[in-house]
Amino acid sequence: MDKAKRKKHWETIFETKGPTDVSWYQETPEPSLSIFRGFDLPKTAKIIDIGAGDSFFVDSLIKLGYRDITVLDVSAKALERAKKRLGEDAEKIEWIVSDVTEFQPGTRYDFWHDRAAFHFLTVEEEIEKYISTVKRAVAKDGYLVIGTFSENGPKKCSGLEITQYSESSLAARLGKDFQKLECRTIDHKTPSGAVQNFLFCSFTPRRREPF
Questions:
Q1: What is the tens place of the pLDDT at every residue in 163-206?
Q2: Could you tell me the residue ranges of all domains in the chain?
Q3: Which fold has domain 3-17+27-205?
Q4: What is the 3-state secondary structure (H, E, C) of the chain?
């Protein structure tokens, strides 16, 4: 799917479906929160949530006292929904409407979080662009967390093909530049009652690339 069609697809999804009408809805964003807490980052940490949609992860970060937060999604409608929900707290967040494969980071982040965005990239060129961006965007002592459908998870989501990953295949994608810290598989129960198996892996850079 080309970028224009991908953007239109997600704008339509967030325009026509409510928060609990989509499979990825989580009132409490776990295991993302427990993984994040494990790093014990200072309140000044720079955090970015990739492909966040109208996820509640940003709400949780604000409640924990973090203020340097960036939220990125290809859908402007999704981010508008998140802003409306947050009210005045939305002013504390940097909002970026962009396809992640076109994102040009202007800073380095201490924590890069991606729950279910990376697995929508099925073309090698776009996967490589994503990884190249991550290499430039994550701080030397920062952390990268990616959640994808596992090999026991769905093969499609929201009508789109996805790339399933195992612990070894995801680590192989990032292993040249990132050291794997931990992987865990979890069952996510959707609002409709279906169960989706996810893989969450955390990494830290092996070395720092110049900007």
A1: 999 999 999 999 889 999 999 999 999 999 999 999 999 999 98
A2: 3-17+27-205
A3: Rossmann fold (3.40.50)
A4: CCHHHHHHHHHHHHHHCCHHHCCCCCCCCCCHHHHHHHCCCCCCCCEEEECCCCCCHHHHHHHCCCCCEEEEECCHHHHHHHHHHHHHHHHHEEEEECCHHHCCCCCCEEEEEEECCHHHCCCHHHHHHHHHHHHHHEEEEEEEEEEEEECCCCCEECCEECCCECHHHHHHHHCCCEEEEEEEEEEEECCCCCEEEEEEEEEEECCCCCC
